[in-house]
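Lab notebook, bench 4. The sequencing result for the construct came back, and we need a structural model before the next group meeting so we can plan mutations. Quick request posted to the team channel:

Model the 3D structure of this chain.
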Amino acid sequence: MKNLFSYLLWANPKSSANSLEQFYYDYNATLFNASLARFNDNSSLFSIMKSVIILQGLANKKKLDKAIQRYTPEQLNSSVLLNTIFDGMPYFEYEGIKIYIPTYTPQINLRYQKDLASLQSFPYNSLVIDKESSLIDPFGIYKYLPFDSSFTRLVKLSNHDMHSQAFYHISFQTIFVINDQGGLDVEIPIFDDRLKNKQEDGLLERLEVLMTYYYSGDKEKFINALKDLNLISVDLFDELIALENRRNKKKEKRLLQ
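Done. Here's the predicted structure in token form:
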């Protein structure tokens, strides 16, 4: 289905311009340091979502580090103060541990969550002093969990297999299939400009029907469902059919040679 998805992206481009993700990235990109520079990328919808996950984690760390430097150990053990500090912070759970800073291991996150006072003294104070200490690739460890959390605006669909999970972004009008290494397998834009009546009612259920055909590998039913479920225009559907016909003819020629 690779050619199909490439054509959909070409024929129905989506943009992050004026999105909450783009505004957040533009305002907070200075939080990136040299060790995390490879995640500083807003060149695509998926890359900007990854960047924003990292940046929100760094913003959480900045707030927590300020509290560590401001309050006494006794104050940092106050449940009332801790509730105030952590209130509203995005996180996800990994093996029972709340991950507020995805660029840290679960063990370091647990220390930030349970024992902030310990970060005031050696050896753990190095995490506060050195912003590049002990950083990890969050997507290698946490896989697609950061995407299934308050770090993003993605909606998790029911469709998945052993190695990937399907999500939908309402503002980007795009389905993302994210693999178990936190990478992008497929990006499927819907609602092209030529679709006159964009029906939002029951959209998630319709997307789950569509993605059933994706995971079963049934390209014909997948293409038909795009039109039948009112996810693309008839014009774009006709172009996809023509693309498939040309592809099949080339395949037949190769077989006859």
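The beta strands are 92-94, 97-99, 154-160, 164-169, 174-179, 184-189.
Will bring this to the meeting.
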